[in-house]
Amino acid sequence: MIIDLDLLDPAQLPAEVGVSTLTMAELAAGPHATNDPDERARRQDRLQRAEAAFDPLPFDAEAARAYGRVYAAVAAKGRKARGARAVDLLIAATACAAGLPLYTRNGADFEALGDLLDVVVV
Asked: How far apart are CA 66 and CA 96, in angstroms?
């Protein structure tokens, strides 16, 4: 969702917005994941703006424990919890550990987590 932040209606968002260190890692990888110089520049700009705006929430020991609960909830629903989805679930675990809602554009990806954290689709 952070990549679409400027496209969202501020009324859909909480008064304070935070990001995880994992989200920042994804943003840091973004400029290196394209060969298009214009897109690389856009991604670099997005990263620098996020770095200036946020003090990211760490993926710490509490988040690691929460990831176990997140993984179990997803696996219990028969959904894939490894591979490309793993980073998204680690981000969800960070929110879970911090007791914060998870704002996302991809609500279906987090349906299994309704008992663990509040998932807000924007």
From this structure: 6
DSSP 17: -
Cβ atoms 23, 56 nearer than 8 A: yes
Residue 1 has pLDDT above 60, yes or no: no
Question: What is the tens place of the pLDDT at every residue in 8-58?
Answer: 666 766 777 789 999 999 999 999 999 999 999 999 999 999 999 889 999
Show the tokens assigned to 52. Answer: 């200036």
Is residue 46 within 8 Å of residue 79, measured between CB atoms? no
CB 95 within 8 A of CB 101: yes
What does pTM read for this prediction? 0.85
Q: Which two three-digit tokens encode residue 109?
A: 């990806």
CB 20 within 8 A of CB 60: no
